[in-house]
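Subject: complex prediction, re-run

Hi both,

The earlier run crashed halfway through, so I resubmitted it with identical inputs.
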Amino acid sequence: MDNAARKLDEPTPVAAAAEAPAAAASKSAPRESAPSGKAYAQRWLALYWRKLRAIAIGALSLALFLLAWHLLTKYRVSFHVRFVNVPSPEMVFESLTRALRSSTFMSHVALSCRRIFIGFTIAAVVAVPLGLVMGRFRLVREFVFPIAEVLRPIPAIAWVPMSIMLWPTNEESIVFITFLGSFFPILLNTLHGMAMVDPVLVRAAQCLGAREASIFREVYFPATLPYVFTGLTVGMGVAWVSLIAAEMISGQFGIGYFTWEAYSLVQYADIALGMICIGVLGLGSSAVIRGIGRVIMPWGKT
Amino acid sequence: MTAPAAVAVSKGRVTVTNFSLSYDTLEGPVEAVSDAAICVNPGEFVSIIGPSGCGKSTLLNAVAGFLKPTRGEVAVDGEPVAGPSADRGMVFQQYSLFPWKTVRENVEFGLKMKGIDRSKRETSARTLLGLAGLLSFENQYPDSLSGGMKQRVGIIRALAIGPKVLLLDEPFGALDAQTRVIMQQILTNMWQRLKTSVLFVTHDIDEAIFLSDRVYCMTARPGTIKAEVAIPLERPRQQSMMMSSEFLALRRGLMSLIREESLKAMGGEVNDTALQGLGIDLHGQTLADVI
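This time it finished cleanly. Structure:
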């Protein structure tokens, strides 16, 4: 809306100076009427009611989900799908409060986060530069791409046995699985971003005296950044999938292990707690990446 | 560094001699430009007009250093063009501003590449932004600007490093008619102050006459120079001049030159009589007028 308004009053050089005070005046106009709080509130409502509505509907939807869960477990519905042993929301909440007080649960969570952090960071640090170099130099791309294409379709879970053989410690093999999960989405998105760089921008930079290194730094890299962040967000999601699988199969600690152990020990409330916890952690880590992206790409539209 | 006065006198002579450029295809080489010769004298404003696909942009891109001639030579101030460089500033039809840089950072880019320090860069960028009436937008990103504003940034970005020649490839082609006229005025104003040589490519006859000292008219593919027309209109030029008899006479002359080529470029089977045969009313004008 703001943009459209600005585009309309396209100033000519002469008009620009004359227009500036006018613009300042129109900006201060709403402030004068600000004391009438009611009008201000109305305007605020008019501008943000769509967002408020979305929040309200979202909250309602979650509440209905909880209610359905509550009812299904309370009446132990068994209609082919059996809710007989499924813990109720109350039981999960109780389990949560107990877990928050125990240090073991928190250390499971902390360890999983640590594995994600290390595996994902290494993946990003390797895949982003590799993608940039592959995008810039055809020889590197033609050499590395076939390997990437063969390894990419192998799901991270399928790597678990191989990983255990490869790495001396269990911890390292789990981090390796996490690394693999996030590596390919980051690499491929970076590569795609490099392919999407507008050649006219490269030409413009050349005409302004930019040499190879500057073009890479000032054009290719920032032009690819939005795609890099798409890759990081997707990669973070896959990292969690891979981590949980690895922890369930080979772990002794971690939130994935916690969830699997809860099943073995017949602590059904803890299964749901583990699942919800994984969901929240995944959501949170993606949000962190999007937030970082927004800070370092202020030109983006989001 | 030479004295600025000496530079101002000698800089910006573009000479293109015996220029031919062909592309290799499976059917053999296809000639885009054939044996063209143009020159731009220091400080002169020269336009190239021609029907679309006649190779006028090809010629401009060769002067910029993006394309190598198959035969012939392109030289600026006697030195053969070997590749793109800061000597020859370029303005593109698609604006081509860096979206991740603010308006001022875009204008500063060439100076930054030259290694000029931050405060000096900022001062000269702000001076130019002031000239273009864009100072209040210096910290905005290009996405929030209108087309006319973006292209003004594009022009001053190219001018900021003081190129010998400014090359413009249909820079106002994407703008609406009103904005286009204002932009032409702004461009001539800036050119008169800075006295950089300009090579301007367009398919708009009015635009070419209004802006230029000389106009080259190109033939349909393979492009060659069909005619060279001097524009003796006095400067500074006003929009009202576009109605003068002098202007209209030049317009008529260029139109008849280009009309035949436009028809050729459209594939040969389109001509005035054929259109009349289809029952299309040209309201007493010729097809070239309508196009």
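The longest strand of chain B covers residues 28-40.

- K.
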